[in-house]
Write a structure and sequence with these properties.
GO molecular function, one term: carbon-sulfur lyase activity
Distance between the termini: 39 Å
Family: Belongs to the Gfa family.
Shape: globular
Protein name: CENP-V/GFA domain-containing protein
Order of helices and strands: EEEEEEEEEE
Strand content: over 45%
Helix content: under 10%
Oligomer: single chain
Radius of gyration: 14 Å
Strand order of the largest sheet: 6-7-8-9-4-3-10
Number of strands: 10
Number of helices: 0
CATH architecture: Beta Complex
Pfam family, one: GFA
CATH class: Mainly Beta
Domain CENP-V/GFA: 7-95
Structural class: mainly beta
């Protein structure tokens, strides 16, 4: 964890920098992806863009969410879930993100 429950994240090239304030509302991992993708869910108001707000692109992946990335390097930043009031951030792009309960939430999908 960073200073005073503030987590920092950025894109691959560093053009976009953001912080997340406070502890995540939930954490988990998605076993559909290989390697496994760990993530944290924060309330939308916890997300603060420090640098590069104009360099963020967005795509509505569904009526329930939009994926955000850096326009320069294409690096994933976060996904907004407005109906839930949450943002989903991959743990791998956050500095010093470690949480004891990383198995609190699992998302698994059955194949048909």
């Amino acid at each position: 964890m960073n200073h005073a429950d503030v987590y920092r994240g950025q894109c691959l090239c560093g053009a976009v920098l953001f912080t997340l304030n406070g502890e995540p509302a939930g954490i988990g991992y998605d076993r559909r992806e290989c390697p496994v993708n760990a993530f944290g869910l924060w309330k939308q108001q916890a997300l603060h863009i420090v640098r590069g707000a104009n360099d963020i692109g967005a795509y509505n992946t569904s009526p329930h969410g939009s994926r955000h990335w850096c326009k320069w390097c294409g690096g994933y930043l976060y996904t907004e879930h407005p109906r839930l009031g949450l943002v989903d951030v991959h743990a791998s792009i956050l500095e010093c993100f470690a949480h004891e309960g990383m198995n609190d939430l699992r998302i698994s999908h059955r194949s048909s």
